[in-house]
Amino acid sequence: MFGFRFVPDDSNFNFIALRKLAFALSLILIIGSVSLTAKNGLNFGIDFIGGTAIEIRTPEMPDLELMRRDLNQLSLGAISIQEFGRPDDLLIRVPQQAESADQKVAYKKCVEKAQKSPKSDLVCLTVQQQAIETVRGSLNGMFTESAVDYRRTEFVGPQVGKELKMKGLYAIIFSLIGILAYIWFRFEWQFGVAAIVALAHDAIATIGLFAFTQMEFNLSTVAAILMIAGYSINDTVVVFDRIRENLRKYKKKLLPELFNFSINQTLARTLMTSITTLLALLALYAFGGEVIRGFVVALLFGIIIGTYSSIFVASPVLLLMNVRGGKGKQPELAQEGA
Amino acid sequence: MVRIAPWKMFLILAVCLYGFAYSAPNILSADKTAWMKENLPGWLPNKTVNLGLDLRGGAHLLYEVDLDVVFDERADFMVQDLRKSLRDKKIGYKRIGTVPKGVRVTLRDDSDPEAVRKIIRKNDSRLLIDTSSEEPPVITATMDAVMIKEVQDQAISQSIEIVRRRVDELGTTEPVIQRQGVNRILLQVPGANAEDLKRIIGKTAKLGFHLVGQLGARAAGERMLPYVEEPGRTLNVKRRAVITGDMLDTAQPSFNQSSQPVVSFKLNAVGARKFCDVTRNNVQKPFAIVLDEEVISAPVINEPICGGQGQISGGFTIQEANDLALLLRAGALPAPMMVVEERTVGPSLGADSVAAGKTASLIGLALVLVFMLMVYGGFGLMANVALAVNVALILALLSSLQATLTLPGIAGIVLTVGMAVDANVLIFERIREEYRAGRSVISAVDAGYSRAMATIIDSNLTTLIAALILFSFGTGPIKGFAVTLGLGIMTSFFSAIMVTRLMVVLWLEKRKPSVLTL
Questions:
Q1: A59 reaches B (C-beta below 8 A)
Q2: Nearest Cβ partner for A280 among B203, B417, B454
Q3: B517 to chain A: nearest residue by CA?
Q4: Lowest mean pLDDT among A79-93, A94-108, A304-318, B444-458
C-alpha cells in the first residue's frame, strides 16, 4: 500500500492544449463573480456594517416563526434569526440602530447625572446598548422554564465598522503589494504578471462565492482571502520555478511543450500538497465548530481554485508573454549541487 | 553533500528537545501543571498556551471617551480664570465666553489688548492668542496642539484608572485595559460577563473624608478600614463621612510653600461650609481620606480649613501627588464613555470551541499522517516525525512567547499541518524524479534536497508575507490566525528540512541502500 502514486511517473498530460477551454471557463467565472457581486452585493457581517449578533442556546426547542414575530415587534428594525449549527443554537442579528441627536444628548445627561450622585444605581445605556438589553429581555421572556445561554454577543458600532472595513481593505492591498514586490524581485516581470493574474483570479472567484451563496462576509473572510492569495502564489511559484529551470536547460524546446513538461513534472507535488491541505481543512470543516465554518469554506474553495489556477491560468498566461525574448533579465541560475 | 556536521546534528536535536519539553505542559491536565509550577524548579518549562477570549470565554469592550465634554469643561475653567484676572486687574470687557477648546473675550474700546494678552500668557503660556484688529478688539485664546494632547492624555489615563479600579472590584484575573488610538479604551476581561462590566463601569467611585476614631478600642459607629498602600495596616474611622466625593469640585497636584508635592483640592459650597466647621472642631486630629472602603491617607488637621480649598500633604513624591489627585478626581469619569464595540463569549461556547479545536486538529493531523505514510512509505514516516516536531514547536513557541491562541489560531495550526508537508513533498518528488533520471540513491537524495530548496524558500516566503500583513492589520482572533500561521511557516521550514534531512542522512549512512523505495 506504500508508495502510492496519484500521478503516474511518466505523466504527460497536455494541459496547455486545454488552455482555450480553461480561459473560457475562467472568464465565465470572473465575469460571473463580478456581476454577481455587483448585482447581489455581499452579505457584510456586523464587523463591517455595524449592528449586533447574539448567539444563544435555548433550553428547549425553539419555535423560530414565533420568535421572529415577537422579536420583530420590538421596533428595532428587521431582526433575523437563523439556526447556527444545531436546532437549539440560534444566531440573532439586530441591525444598527439609528441614533438621533436628542438620544445622544440624553445619554450624556444621564452620565453626568450618574457622576453627580455616586450612590444611585443609575445605569446609562446608549441606544445600541438599549437594543441589546431589549432583545435579551424579550428572549428571556420566551423561555421561562430555565435560563437562555448567551453564548456570544457581538456589537460593532458604525464608526468601528467603517474602520474595520478600511483595515481589511488595506490588509488586502498591502499583501498584494508585498507579494508582487517579492515576485518581481525573484522572477522576471512576465512571471510576476502571470502570478498576479492567477492570484486576482482566485481572490475574485472567492469573493464571487460569497456573493453567490450570500454567506456572511466578515473579518475572517478577509483573512481567508489573504491566506488564499498566499497559497495561490505559493502553488504558482513552484510551477514557475520549474518552468524557469527548464527554460535554461532546454533552450531549443518549443515553449508549449516545455510548459507542459514542467507542469507535469510538478503535478504530483501540486496535487499532494493540495490534498494534505484539503484533508486538514476537511477535519476543520467537520469538527471545528460553527463559528469558523464560513472561514473554512472560503479556504476550501480557495485551495481548490488556487490549484486549478496554478495549472490552467498562471502558466497559460505566462505563455502569452514573451518569456524567452531578448528583453528582460536572463533567468537567474538556481544553485545546483551545493 | 550528504553529511551533517556533528554540531548541526546536536543543534537540530536540541531544538526538537525544546519543542517537546516546552509544549509538554499543554498536554498535561491543569492540576498537574499547577503541581509542577509549585514543586519543580522554575527553569523547567511550566507555561501553557494563553487562550484567547473566544476560547476561555470573557468580554471584550471597546469604549469611546467623549473628549468634547472634557474640552468644554476646560474652556469653562479658562473663562472663569480669565474673568477673575481681568477683574483683579480692572480691565473692562464687553463679553467673555467659550469657543471650541478656548476662550474669547470682547474688550471695551479703551481696554489695552496687550495687557490682556499678557494676562492670558501668564495664566498659561502655551495658549495660541489671536487678536482681531477691529474695534473693539476681540481676543481669542485656544489650546495649542501640545496642550490638546495633554488634556486628551490626562482624560484618557484618568478614565483608564477608574475603569481599572471598577474592574478590580469584580475580582477578575488578568484584565487588559489599554488605550487605543486617541479616544478609545479597550477592556478585555476573561471570564467576565459584559452586562456586569457595563453596569459597574457606569457607576462612580465612592470618596469620603472621615474623622478617625480612638486608637485601639473601636467605639460604636466606627470601623476598621485597611490602608491601600500598606497591606495589613488598618485604621479605625468613623462610619459617617464628613465630606463625600460629590462635594469635591477638583483636585490637582501642586506644591506647598516649602516646595513639597501636595494635592490641592477644591470643595463646592456645601462641602466648604461643612469642612470649615469640622476642621475647626478637630484641629490636631487626623482625618482619613477613604476611597472605596480603603484608606488612602490620614493627614493631621493643622488648622481650620475654610473657603473650600485645601491641601493634602504627606511627604509625597511628585508621582504620588499626581496619583492621589487623580484618585480624588477619579470619583467621576472625566467624560461620558460609550461602548463602540463589544464581543462577549460565554463559557459554554468557549469550552465547545476548545473541544472542537482539539478534535479538528487531532483528526486533521491523523489524516495527513496516514496519507503521507501511504504515499511515501518510509520517507513518509520521516516526514511524519518532522510534522510532530513541527506541531510541538508551534505549541512550545506559543507557550514561551505567551502569545494568545484563538479559534482562528487553531485553524492556522491545522492549516499549517496540511501545508507543512509541502516542503517534504517537494523534496521527495524531486528525489523520485532524479532517481528515475538514472542517478544513484545518494546522488538523487542530494540533488533532491538542493534543487528543491530555492522553490521551498520562494513558496514559504510568499505565505509568510501574507501572514505578516495579516498580523499588522488584523484584530483580535484574526491576529491569532496570523500568529500561528506565521510561526507554523517558520517552524515547518526547520522541521521539514533539517529534521527529515537528519533522518534521511542517518538512514543512508546506516543502510547504504542501492535501491530507492520511495
A1: no
A2: B417
A3: A3
A4: A94-108
Tell me what the mean pLDDT of segment B351-364 comes to.
Answer: 92
Contact assignment for B340 to A159 by CB distance below 8 Å: yes
Span B472-496, average pLDDT? 86
Which residue from A151, A276, A288 is facing B411, i.e. has the nearest CB?
Answer: A288
B465:A182 CB<8 A:
yes
pLDDT tens by residue, B210-221: 888 776 666 767
- State the smallest CA–CA distance between residue A136 and chain B in angstroms: 11
pLDDT digits (tens, 9 = 90+) for B242-275: 887 767 777 788 888 888 888 888 887 788 888 8
Omega before B136 within 30 of 0, i.e. cis: yes
Which residues of chain A does B332 touch, with a Cβ-Cβ cutoff of 8 Å? 115-116, 118
The secondary structure of residue B230, as a DSSP letter, is: S
Question: Given B206, B368, B482, which is nearest A276 (Cβ)?
Answer: B368
Residue-level pLDDT at B291: 67
Q: How much is the pLDDT for B349?
A: 92
- In 3D, which of B350, B449, B368 has the Cα closest to residue B54? B350
Res. A326: pLDDT tops 60: no
What CATH number labels A16-45+160-320?
1.20.1640.10
Question: Which residue in A124, A272, A275, A293 has the most chain B C-beta atoms within 10 A of its own C-beta, making it the best mutation to test that interface?
Answer: A272
Dihedral sign (CA B397, B402, B403, B404): positive
User: Among B356, B357, B473, whose Cβ lies nearest the Cβ of A171?
Assistant: B473
When pLDDT is cut at 50, 70 and 90, the band that residue B484 belongs to is very high
pLDDT value at position A17? 87
Over residues A75-93, mean pLDDT: 91
Domain extents for chain A?
16-45+160-320, 51-156
CATH fold of A51-156 reads Alpha-Beta Plaits (3.30.70)
Q: How many CB atoms lie within 10 A of CB B220?
A: 6
Which tops the pLDDT comparison, B463 or A264?
A: A264
Distance, first Cα to last Cα, chain A: 35
Domains in chain B (CATH in brackets) are: 6-53+348-511 (1.20.1640.10), 155-333 (3.30.1360.200)
Per-residue model confidence as pLDDT tens digits over A31-80: 999 999 999 999 998 989 899 999 999 998 999 999 999 999 988 889 99
Which 3-state string (H, E, C) describes chain A?
Answer: CCCCCCCCCCCCCCCHHHHHHHHHHHHHHHHHHHHHHHHHCCEECHHHHCEEEEEEECCCCCCHHHHHHHHCCCCCCCCEEEEECEEEEEEEEECCCCCCHHHHHHHHHHHHHHHHCCCCCCCCCCHHHHHHHHHHHHHHHHCCCCCCEEEEEEEECHHHHHHHHHHHHHHHHHHHHHHHHHHHHHCCHHHHHHHHHHHHHHHHHHHHHHHHHCCEECHHHHHHHHHHHHHHHHHHHHHHHHHHHHHHHCCCCCHHHHHHHHHHHHHHHHHHHHHHHHHHHHHHHHHCCCCCHHHHHHHHHHHHHHHHHHHHHHHHHHHHCCCCCCCCCCCCCCCCCC
Q: What are phi and psi of B296, to 5 degrees?
A: -85, -50
Alpha carbons A107 and A128: distance in angstroms, whole number: 11
Minimum CA–CA partner of B194 in chain A = A153
